């Protein structure tokens, strides 16, 4: 399976594993053709950063980001000590990756909106551990002081002991300062013309001043401090760091939800989801959390360089496949809600959370509970049974006795029965126009 996923032969995989073992002291186990990583996770993370830093792709991208003068492919290839043919192949991949976020390469220099550039560098440094800029002791001291000053519950030593918890947000601030000193000012950036208006909270000095002013979130009022809500929403869009989340009270978090629901982006997203899935997303804590997570990722969809965030809800951690019908529905919702295409990995995470919720709650109104084969059977039998209504009202998944009791009182039905309910089926009197489809185990697994 692993060989198929990465498109190599078995002997090539074994050679790669041997190299990782010899060069990075990684331990692997192979049992029944399944590869198991036996090394502790924190060590693997550091090794992954070493691999990223040694990657030709990232080395080339780093050089392009640091270039201040135009260079041709011959010069770039020579500096990287690679052939020109390899250089052209790398450049093609890099241009394709950058184009997804509104950036391009012109004569060896990455060009585009300055804020997008800063976000890209912050992602590369915080997530992949790439060393784009060099930070001296003064830079480190400044960022430590800034974090501890903004968070009274933290001391300097706590921050020094947890460098891995420096977030994308803190990186973004210090990168902004460095690039301004190097002659990359943030002027006339499109981000100031959209949504944010004249509030320049992206600028480092403004952010620092606002944090110092609004440390005690619980004392702020939505009506009197609209600036706070705008600022806080912006912070939530670009960071998931513990330093800020630990400051949220139940009241301030609710204010943030309310602010989000009042925006046109949020209303459109909520309406599209509810129309598609026939479910009230606001009255469910799980779905409201998911909805807000989508909002954070896509509110500033024209310029936000998205990190591949992992959902913290346990639904997304289950070992399950996303049903193709649900995935297509989620993809349609995002296409209607946002102007910028969303990465496939994010769509699947959203679909997985929704799938886990609907299965857990036995919400029978959602189209995910209409298996594709069940929907086909419904369309075939509809005229013969004289049924009416939409498919999601007719096709039902019946997982338990209580649900079955409700269904038998509703008249004509097409009922899909899971194996765990077969033993109860004979206890009920079904109407003459009720069709029962007994699912086999393989269909159940496909559904889940």
Automatic annotation (TrEMBL):
What Pfam family does this protein match (any one)?
Answer: Mga
The highest taxon in the source lineage is Bacteria
Q: Where in the numbering of this chain does the Mga helix-turn-helix domain appear?
A: 43-122
Report the InterPro entries cross-referenced here: Mga_HTH (IPR007737)
Q: What is this protein called?
A: Mga helix-turn-helix domain-containing protein
The beginning of the lineage is: Bacteria, Bacillati, Bacillota, Bacilli, Lactobacillales
């Amino acid at each position: 399976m692993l060989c198929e996923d990465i498109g190599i032969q078995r002997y090539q995989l074994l050679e790669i594993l041997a190299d990782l073992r010899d060069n990075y002291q990684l331990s692997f186990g192979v049992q029944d053709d399944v590869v198991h990583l036996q090394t502790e996770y924190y060590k693997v993370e550091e090794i992954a950063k070493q691999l990223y830093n040694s990657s030709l792709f990232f080395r080339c991208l780093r050089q392009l980001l640091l270039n201040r003068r135009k260079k041709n492919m011959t010069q770039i290839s020579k500096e990287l000590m690679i052939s020109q043919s390899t250089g052209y192949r790398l450049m093609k991949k890099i241009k394709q990756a950058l184009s997804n976020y509104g950036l391009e390469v012109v004569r060896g220099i990455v060009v585009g909106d300055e804020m997008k550039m800063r976000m890209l560098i912050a992602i590369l440094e915080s997530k992949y551990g790439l060393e784009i800029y060099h930070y001296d002791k003064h830079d480190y001291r400044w960022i430590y002081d800034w974090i501890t000053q903004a968070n009274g519950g933290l001391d300097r030593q706590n921050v020094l002991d947890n460098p891995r918890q420096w977030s994308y947000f803190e990186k973004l601030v210090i990168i902004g300062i460095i690039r301004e000193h190097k002659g990359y000012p943030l002027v006339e950036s499109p981000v100031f013309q959209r949504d944010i208006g004249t509030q320049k909270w992206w600028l480092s000095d403004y952010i620092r001043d606002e944090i110092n002013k609004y440390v005690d979130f619980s004392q702020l009022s939505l009506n009197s401090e609209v600036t706070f809500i705008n600022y806080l929403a912006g912070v939530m869009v670009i960071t998931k760091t513990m330093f800020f989340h630990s400051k949220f009270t139940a009241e301030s978090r609710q204010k943030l939800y309310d602010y989000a629901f009042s925006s046109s982006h949020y209303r459109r997203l909520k309406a599209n989801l509810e129309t598609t899935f026939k479910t009230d997303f606001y009255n469910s804590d799980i779905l409201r959390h998911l909805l807000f997570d989508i909002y954070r990722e896509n509110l500033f969809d024209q310029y936000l360089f998205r990190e591949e965030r992992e959902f913290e809800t346990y639904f997304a951690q289950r070992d399950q496949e996303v049903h193709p019908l649900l995935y297509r529905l989620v993809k349609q919702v995002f296409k209607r809600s946002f102007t910028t295409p969303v990465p496939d990995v994010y769509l699947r995470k959203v679909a997985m959370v929704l799938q886990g919720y609907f299965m857990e709650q036995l919400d029978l109104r959602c189209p995910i509970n209409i298996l594709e084969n069940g929907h086909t059977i419904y369309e075939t039998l509809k005229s013969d049974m004289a049924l009416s209504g939409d498919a999601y009202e007719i096709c039902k998944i019946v997982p338990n006795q209580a649900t079955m009791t409700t269904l038998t009182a509703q008249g004509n039905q097409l009922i899909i029965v899971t194996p765990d309910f077969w033993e109860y089926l004979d206890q009920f009197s079904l109407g003459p126009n009720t069709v029962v489809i007994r699912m086999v185990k393989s269909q159940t697994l496909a559904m889940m």
